[in-house]
Design brief:
By secondary structure, this protein is an alpha/beta fold. It has three domains: 5-260, TIM Barrel (Alpha-Beta Barrel), CATH 3.20.20.70; 296-369, no CATH class; 398-450. Helix content is 38%, strand content 19%. It has 17 helices and 16 strands. The protein has helices spanning 24-37, 51-59, 87-94, 108-114, 119-135, 147-153, 155-167, 184-197, 213-222, 244-254, 268-278, 300-308, 335-343, 354-368, 377-387, 437-449, 501-520, and strands at 5-8, 41-45, 69-75, 99-105, 139-145, 172-177, 201-206, 227-230, 296-297, 326-327, 396-404, 415-423, 426-434, 460-468, 479-486, 491-498. Strands 1-2-3-4-5-6-7-8 form an eight-stranded parallel barrel, surrounded by nine helices. It has a three-stranded antiparallel β-sheet with strand order 11-12-13. α9 links the parallel β7 (201-206) and β8 (227-230). α5 runs parallel beside α7, α6 (147-153) crosses α7 and α16 (437-449) runs parallel beside α17. The chain is elongated, with a radius of gyration of 27 Å. The protein starts with a strand and ends in a 5-residue tail after the last helix.
Amino acid sequence: MRKIEIFDSTLRDGAQGEGVGFSVTDKINIVKALDNLGVDYIEAGNPYSNPKDLEFFERIQNYSLRHARLVAFGSTRRCGIDVREDKNVQALISAGTEYVAIFGKSWDLHVTEIIRTSLEENLRMIYDTVEYFSSHDKRVVFDAEHFFDGYKANPEYALATLRAAENAGAVCVTLCDTNGGCFPEEISRITETVCKQLQVQVGIHCHDDMGCAVANSLLAVEAGAGMVQGTYLGFGERCGNANLSSIIPSLQLKKGVACIPDDKLEVMTKAAHYIAEVANLTVRGSMPYVGSSAFAHKGGMHVDGVNKLSRSFEHIEPQTVGNKRDFLLSEVAGRSAIIRRIHDVDSSIRKDSPQIAALLQKVKELEYRGYQFESADASFKILVLKTLGRFKEFFRLEDFKIIGEPMRGENANSATAVIKIWVGDRLEVTAAEGEGPVHALDCALRKALEVFYPSIADVRLIDYKVRVVEHKRATAAQVRVLIETTDGDSVWTTVGASTDIIHASWEALVDSIEYKLMKDQKGVN
């Protein structure tokens, strides 16, 4: 089986994405996750660019990686400066990594108009820098920035930049579609041409500005590239980078090209959600392979087909990449979908059981009132347990009151929640402030329950959505609230609906906490 190398740039190129920022501890945790996944290289940052990356390279030396090799990132020497005097170069030496990734200009436009030097000096900058690191026992990956644009404008010069790196001792030259503006057939044709002319390994680095980064990377591998660079969830500058969580299983499961150890494919989904959690992002439901909707079925005919023969509507088995099959509840899903969802809670319930009819009727009534369970699996499981008479009550609301007030000062809280709840035969009265009424309610509920259920401290809300169900009624309309929650190990979604947004939010909050408590007691999975 052919093997290609996976070069993950989540901590460097991914960190350039809008709204993404990593602490040093975040970066170390992501390194551990990627190493456990089995990627070959982890590009971890530029030690010259900021003190945080410098601290990271110092601290990471205390950790032993089982598979991945760390890579420090930087540029060629600056024009007109001796390589030994360049501070960026010396910072990369001090990073202590065996591998360094060096980017240099391969588009003549950038040479003359951006860094404003001669074409000959740019070639010397590439050669001098790569040769310097090679002479210091560093293995150099040369990233030919804007290579495809450069090749289309001046193929002879673009190839000359690659040969300069190859002749200086680079172990890989990476062709970068930095602007993300190339079509797959261009990437394929140019990559094949380059691979025929060089002896050194060729890599591919694509951006997603046309939505083609994954396709471009796959075709580059077919054309001869032996390394794929990308970020694990595709986030990065502008529209992002090639998504490795799509590329790896596509190559390994569809093309028979080894990317990571076979037994690591099943941790791909878990790794995706963990990295997203550390990055304070969410995994888009529709993301291939690892998204929550990747193997979700809604139409009645689809559900029936999957039940009879899963490959009739699924291109792979979801558990292959650590994901799971889901049957969405809706007016088009049919009876089979509800039965499969019930079996997640109690596999002994039969198709002709009276509980099925009762639950179907309950779902129809609630959806008519604005609830939607297709994306709120946690609330549905709670509903099933209540319908079956197997729900354990962890707490009971006596009353709550919201006090709103104008915000005073930049960091002032704008609402206070007072809550009375029963836990067993004990009445707990608690108050908390928050940035708005829902946040205040969430804080008060946690404050009241953490005494009895300490694991709630691990729970946090990661998404909050409100949708108006009946637009024509304006401010008196029914609203639906969806809350996405995590405990650091898994993610679940709950729903509430009411003409009062606070009450709808309360319902979703309560389901969220109850689901966590049931999960702790193995009442749901």
